[in-house]
Amino acid sequence: MRSVLRKVRDGLNTRTGFFVLTLVLFWIKTYAVYVNKFSLGITNSAQKLLLILNPLPLGILLLGIALYFRGKKSYWIMMIMDLLASLWLFANILYYREFSDFLSLGIIKSSGSVSNNLTLSIGEILHASDLLVFLDVIVLVLLLAFKIIKIDKRPVKYRYPLGITGLACALFAVNLGLAEKDRPQLLTRTFDNNYIVKYLGLNFYAGYNAYQTHKQSATRASASSSDLDQVLKFIKENKTEVNPEYYGKAKGKNVFVFHLESFQQFMINYKVNGKEVTPNINKFYSDQNTLSFDNFYHQVGQGKTSDAETMLENSLYGLPSGSVMTSYGTSNTFQAMPAILDQQGYTTAAFHGDVGSFWNRDNTYKSWGYQYFFSEDYYKNKTNYSIGYGLKDKLFLQQSVKYIEQLPQPFYAKLITVTNHYPYELDKQNQTIEKTTTGDSTVDGYVQTAKYLDDAFGEFIAYLQKAGLYDNSMIVMYGDHYGISNNHKKAIAQLLGKESVNSYDLAQFQKVPFMIHMDGLKGGIDHTYGGEIDVMPTLLDLLGIKNTDTIQLGNDLLAKDRNQTVAFRNGDFVSPTFTKIGSTIYNDKGENVTDKLTAEQKQEVKAQTAFVDEQLSLSDKIVTGDLLRFYTPSDFKKVDKTQYNYKYSDVMKQLKETQKKTPTSVLMKNNGKSTQDLYTTDAPELK
To answer: 192 falls in which pLDDT band (50, 70, 90)?
Structure first.
């Protein structure tokens, strides 16, 4: 036994032995994180094998670099590589826990605009066990520091490190081959980042994502007007006819777009202990003058809220990696809804009770043609006025009235609420409903912040009615993305009254509310399938604004002949007939019919898949190639970003001058008397 231990110790005292020890610890650690910290959706033995295998090729390659050096330098390099890999693992554990996705270069590059808010949730995100990813590094450093393992100072024989590098490449080739066998076209089609990590590993994903980001940058430089040919062909082939019953019904009306942060469809009419969570939204949803879509899905990717805004106001998807607003919002050409409405005589304004730089809004909104952007600087704030990601909704909406009443009518106003945001914390004085009892601390507070959002919405609607804005406005409400991620399957099952949930259930769980209300509008529950990509063409048709030669990838939800296949950003889709999640096909009853499809059904799924792939691919080309710079629709003037200035003093001066020229604001129509007193709120912070 002693001789065996001596041999092991002697082996560890060699450069190669220490390399093997470091590699094995790194391998075990990475696999443990995959299994315990991520939800990668392992469904068969091949995927289990790949999950075990995939940390090795790049682990060998990166740690093997140290073998080309001798003495202390070799060990330092190994420790630095292991530490960097551990930091990458740790960062992704935290990010994945909140966003169910992995960090990308695009997100890291945009950290200046989002990190100040993300850190507010770190205390909730961090688990003590997360720090174990650094345990192997600490142990190895201590072994070296106390000379339990001695430094091997012998000269390098380069055939050994070359052999190690060759082994890494060979293992990666095997890994990639097995991955392609289980998941064809893994790297050539737009898949979920979970797939890349599941099949090829987190470190490969980092390199692949960096390559994709570089490729996107190069795409703009090489793009030309001819790249639009395929885009225009797709739009022509999928264009729908307007519905004469609804076209132009909202002509000349004000438009309110009410952003329901992290609000999901299952909350409609949901009760906790017999008490409605969202009574005001429920009433609005079922109003005879409200069009409510109960098969409406969010379609966001990594950009989350920014993706929702991009789709809503441009009918273009977010990117497979990063955010359109942060990566392209400043530099690209857009033909967004605010710019179109501005050129049709509307006043356009966005309201957000957080810093203007969040998601690069202060630059992107100029590119989109927003005349006004009322952000944090426009709102009175005290220590207890904000929580999590900005000003509490009741205070935000109450203070927004000061600016809404000064907007010349007709206007387009988007209000972005934030209180119903992860980690769903709310001070006790604002809690008006009990938490759910799933046992999941992240999930159980969700109903309390949703109830608070609903109360705030009710107060805002009451103001609109008193101020005379309710009857002459089209009020649009939408949930931007999921509030409860798929990482909380047990809690989701309890919320839905199920024993468990499968991939089909989770796809249906991505439904978010979409409602359009207007006095005299023929309302009701509309069962058509659609998503955020379809909002812009729907609203423009209702407003009666010419929309025949614009570049929009969605279609009017009220059209009779529309394609109801709804794409998710990862290439999956839902439709009235089939749902495709990964390589699994479900029918409209949620049954797995992958191996039971008829020849005709296979063709239908193939056509749906092709439609989704092309729609996503063309959107990416439009954005990364900045293709809209080569195309201008009729009756549209290219946005001049230099015309917009969101500085408080300049904006207030501009508002005053504009109202004199166009005296149609609520304030001017009320003979200069403010309507702020008509706003009633029970916000305890104001008592």
So the answer is: low
